Every structure is written in structure tokens, then in C-alpha cells.
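Internal tracking record. Fields below are filled automatically when a chain is submitted to the structure queue. Please do not edit lines marked as system-generated. If the sequence contains nonstandard residues, flag them in the REMARKS field before resubmitting.
Queue: standard
Priority: normal
Entity type: single polypeptide chain
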Amino acid sequence: QVQLVESGGGLVQAGGSLRLSCAASGRIFSIRVMGWYRQAPGKQRELVATITSGGSANYADSVKGRFTVSRDNAKNTVHLQMNSLKPEDTAVYYCNAEGLSGDFRNFAAWGQGTQVTVSS
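SYSTEM-GENERATED OUTPUT FOLLOWS
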């Protein structure tokens, strides 16, 4: 079983920065894509950014130019650098990973979520 553990959330003023990190552990053969999603109160979970093992990144329009996703394939970690934060970025941020487990089965795993609160 694959586990994801996030860190780095918190409270920040508008215009500030935060860096989220997520580490995957367990029986992992490979991870095709890692990324971040978020869910604000009363809203559906939405994609923030994803990155493939080859380094191809995809961003939600609302965060382009402000957020940067990166990953370390050797350490099975993904990071989200969030700059110029806005109050509307307030949400619980979830790490996601999809790939092949050690017994060559497809997996899709989620972290427990980390709260990001941006004050105005």
C-alpha cells in the first residue's frame, strides 16, 4: 500500500508564500504523476497542479504564474511553491500520486490534506 504524507500548510497573509511538500512511501515501483488538488469549504475538489515523472507540469489557470510544482523522482516527493497567495487560495490541499506498486498493480493514492489559510 502506498502512503502520502503532506507538510507545509499554515496561515499566511495575502501576498505571502508557502511551500507544500509530499512524500510517498510503501511498495512503489514507479509513480507516473504526482500533484496537488484543493478543496475549499462548500466547493468540489479541484486540480491545482500536476507533474509527470518526465517533468511535464500542468496548472490550473487560477494559479499559473504564482505556483510552481516540482518533484524528486529518486525520493518520491513532490513540492508546491505558492507565491503571491490570495484569500481565494484558502483550502485544504491534498497530495495525489498515481503509478505502479511494487507488485505491478496500478495505484492512486491521496494524502490526508493540509490546511492553507490566506488572510486578507
